[in-house]
User: Which sequence fits this backbone?
């Protein structure tokens, strides 16, 4: 489920092109190394089952498109430098590798047994397929998916609404806020550099002040988009199916999986965004010499 919220973040109002990701899970400290995984469930297999192996697949392209979609046009040199830096820094292969390394040896054998039992079942495989399909939607289809999801939410029964609310509560919105913050940080970096010439530097303090002002106004929009994407992704499931999925999400291994994954994803994106800012400044400095 981790990728649904990632989608909601990059899909908000022109921050980035939408990319569907599972609902954000509670941010938590990475656990201390555990014993090796139980036979039959490697970290790579777990990432694939939980669709974590594609969580960053559209992030680089979304960051590249962000610069072209702003109401205030960015200059040609900045657009060129932005695209090059985004492709280099937000490499999906690199970010997925970092995520795999972060998840390695973080779970006990009994955790892997629970993951294998759920994701190896026909129902678990169905959930994986639904989430992967939503995650890999073309950018052009992302907004229509949110609209369709909102229509489903508006027409849903109280029981269905309660189930979705519980799912979102179980996974928390901390990561979604962090991911939105980093997307906005990238945009603000670009806007600040659009005004600079000569010795290009990232105005980190100014960016932070602007972030503090902007984040509250986007929080409600993010929550609404997150909820709509959840309705859209699981539209073909009935209430009993959703309850079965909730039974898994309520387990300690599931909470641990999503907490560790969410924290790792947030750390990776935060690190990459800072590297992106410096790489962008370096490239622009060369252009403006």
Assistant:
């Amino acid at each position: 489920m981790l990728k649904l919220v990632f989608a909601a973040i990059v899909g908000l109002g022109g921050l980035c092109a939408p990319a569907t990701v599972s609902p954000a899970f509670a941010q938590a400290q990475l656990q201390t190394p555990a014993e090796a995984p139980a036979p039959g469930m490697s970290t790579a297999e777990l990432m694939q089952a939980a669709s974590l192996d594609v969580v960053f697949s559209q992030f680089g392209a979304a960051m590249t498109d962000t610069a072209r979609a702003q109401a205030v046009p960015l200059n040609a040199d900045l657009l060129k430098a932005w695209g090059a830096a985004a492709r280099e820094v937000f490499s999906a292969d690199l970010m997925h590798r970092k995520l795999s390394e972060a998840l390695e040896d973080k779970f006990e054998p009994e955790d892997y047994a629970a993951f294998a039992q759920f994701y190896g079942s026909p129902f678990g495989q169905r959930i994986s397929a639904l989430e992967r399909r939503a995650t890999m939607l073309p950018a052009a289809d992302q907004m229509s998916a949110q609209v369709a999801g909102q229509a489903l939410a508006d027409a849903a029964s109280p029981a269905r609404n309660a189930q979705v609310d519980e799912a979102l509560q179980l996974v928390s919105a901390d990561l979604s806020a962090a991911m939105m913050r980093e997307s906005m940080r990238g945009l603000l970096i670009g806007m600040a550099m659009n005004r600079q010439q000569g010795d290009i530097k990232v105005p980190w303090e100014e960016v932070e002040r602007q972030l503090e002002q902007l984040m509250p106004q986007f929080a409600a929009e993010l929550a609404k988009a997150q909820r709509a994407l959840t309705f859209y992704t699981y539209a073909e499931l009935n209430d009993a199916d959703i309850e079965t999925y909730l039974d898994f999400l309520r387990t300690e291994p599931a909470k641990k999986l999503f907490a560790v994954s969410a924290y790792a994803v947030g750390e990776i994106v935060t690190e990459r965004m800072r590297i992106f800012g410096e790489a962008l400044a370096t490239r622009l400095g060369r252009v403006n010499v």
In short: Confidence is low (pLDDT under 50) at residues 10-39. Residues 2-287 form one domain.
